[in-house]
Design goal:
It is built from 12 helices and 10 strands. With about 260 residues, the chain is of the alpha/beta class. Strands 1-2-3-6-7-8-9-10 form an 8-stranded parallel barrel, surrounded by 6 helices. A two-stranded antiparallel sheet has the order 4-5. Helix 9 packs parallel to helix 11 and helix 11 runs antiparallel to helix 12. The protein is globular and about 50 Å long.
Length: about 260
């Protein structure tokens, strides 16, 4: 691995081999998502506790302060919305020149395996890998499922993650599922867990994150279960304890409840 690529990967993955990415890119297809109406205000108290920020170029420029910023994973695929016919109908949205100009540590591209736009999304990934490898920027593949959440099962996710790795992704973001180790074991690059739909309880979040880490994931790319929580700082700190301090789910839940009383 060349120096530039290794340097950027080390910004994202901490010395203990773990990572906590905070995504706020939801507006690229959802518009003004609840609690992200003013993204700069939402993330300000959370930034000290995450390792990188997953964001679009527009919100990066408008709402993220460049001084002492966290490493940026730049969302570079899009072109569909929740009111359109198919969320999978994406294209690449950002040039390699702007990726470099914005000093991104990595970029993120969605793939939609099994959809009508499977080929187009996989070629988006391959094209971005070709561009980014030349300049030492890692590409994170996002195994998106659109509205078809029933696809969050081990056979489909294993297929999607392996294809993403074969096409050159340096990191793969995918959903936690039962027997998650089978997904990780067949993917030759690091796997991070997506948050998926908002969970019913905080303990449920801590449990799936802890299980995924135990089964081989290196961390999470988790947003809504943090910044849509009534106590987002308590939530992000408790999750960080699970990821970086090997806290148990019950220990994290206890920490969360103690922190929310102080709102710190």
């Amino acid at each position: 691995m060349e120096w530039g690529m290794k340097n950027r990967m080390s910004q994202l993955i901490q010395p203990n081999g773990r990572c906590f990415f905070l995504p706020i890119d939801h507006g690229y297809f959802q518009g003004p998502t609840t609690c992200l109406e003013r993204p700069g205000k939402t993330i300000e108290p959370l930034l000290p506790y995450c390792d990188a920020l997953f964001v679009t170029r527009g919100v990066l420029r408008a709402a993220v302060k460049p001084e002492n910023a966290k490493p940026i994973i730049l969302r570079v695929s899009g072109g569909a919305s929740i009111v359109g016919q198919d969320l999978a109908h994406e294209a690449l949205t950002t040039s390699i020149e702007e990726i470099i100009r914005l000093n991104a540590a990595a970029v993120g591209v969605s793939i939609f395996v099994g959809s009508d736009y499977e080929h187009e999304s996989l070629m988006n990934l391959a094209d971005m890998v070709n561009l980014c490898e030349d300049v030492g920027i890692p590409v994170m593949a996002v195994t998106a499922v659109g509205r078809e959440l029933e696809k969050q099962e081990v056979r489909y996710l294993s297929l999607s993650c392996r294809i993403a790795a074969e096409l050159g992704a340096r990191v793969v973001k995918t959903y936690w599922c039962k027997d998650f180790d089978r997904v990780v074991d067949c993917c030759p690059v690091p796997v991070v867990m997506a948050g998926g739909p908002k969970c019913e309880t905080e303990l449920e979040v801590f449990e799936f994150v802890h299980d995924g880490l135990r089964r081989g994931a290196i961390g999470v790319n988790l947003g809504r279960n943090v910044w849509q929580n009534p106590y987002p700082v308590a939530m992000v700190r408790a999750l960080r304890a699970v990821i970086h301090e090997d806290e148990t789910p019950k220990g994290a839940w206890k920490l969360y409840n103690s922190l929310k009383k102080t709102r710190k």
